[in-house]
Design goal:
Blueprint (H helix, E strand, L loop, with lengths): L18 H24 L15 H11 L7 H4 L12 E4 L4 E6 L21 E6 L4 H6 L11 E6 L8 H17 L3 E6 L2 E4 L1
Parallel strand pairs: 1-4, 4-5
Antiparallel strand pairs: 1-2, 2-3, 5-6
């Protein structure tokens, strides 16, 4: 925050502010400097490349694991047959430097096979994208409806595309933390890369 230039608010030479007004002005100036100092000390909320990612609370993981157990075990024959993330129906994660993007395909409310994937029932209309903090992963996954897990308890995970070289170590660290969190939740991890998926 910039203070006004003294030239924009001239004070006549013969008129000096009273002591009470001087106290108010000094208080305002001190307030501005304390806010600026706090902003400099706090800095940005995003983690830099050298800052460790937020860790997940173990109690939250235990609670989320119990909820995740309501989802059936994964069906390997179903998800191993998927060759692109565009055809992936379970939740999947895109890990970035300071956040995770959760992609969810909601189940079709219409049980009929008529017009599935057509103009009146496009799959894209049922896809939801949510950006979350690294440590919010357990809560976010337990909020995904049970019918959005057609392959069972398995999540595909990928690193963000076009990541600058300077951010790649931080993205890889966040990727490892996300994979560990998923394993702690009892979720099978299907690490996705350009060549396809790899079980972790």
């Amino acid at each position: 925050m910039l203070l006004p230039s003294p030239r924009c608010c001239p004070i006549p030479v013969n008129s000096r502010p009273s002591s009470s007004l001087r106290g108010v002005l000094l208080g305002m100036i001190a307030g501005v400097f304390s806010i600026a100092a706090a902003a400099m000390l706090t800095g940005c909320n995003h983690a830099s490349a050298g800052t460790p990612a937020a860790t997940v609370n173990p109690r939250e993981v235990d609670s989320a694991r119990q909820q995740m157990e309501l989802i059936p075990p994964p069906s390997k024959t179903r998800y191993m047959a998927v060759h692109s993330l565009a055809g992936w129906e379970n939740p999947y994660l895109t890990v970035q430097q300071n956040m995770i993007t959760l992609h969810v395909t909601l189940a079709d409310a219409n049980v009929s096979d008529l017009g599935v994937g057509g103009m009146l029932r496009p799959v894209g209309a049922r896809r939801q994208v949510l950006t979350i903090a690294d440590d919010a992963l357990p809560d976010a996954l337990t909020a995904v409806p049970e019918n959005s897990w057609p392959y069972g308890r398995v999540v595909a995970i990928e690193e963000a595309h076009d990541t600058p070289a300077s951010a790649r170590p931080a993205v890889r660290r966040n990727m490892e933390i996300a994979i560990k969190t998923l394993s702690d939740l009892g979720v099978v991890v299907y690490e996705w890369n350009e060549g396809g998926g790899v079980l972790r």
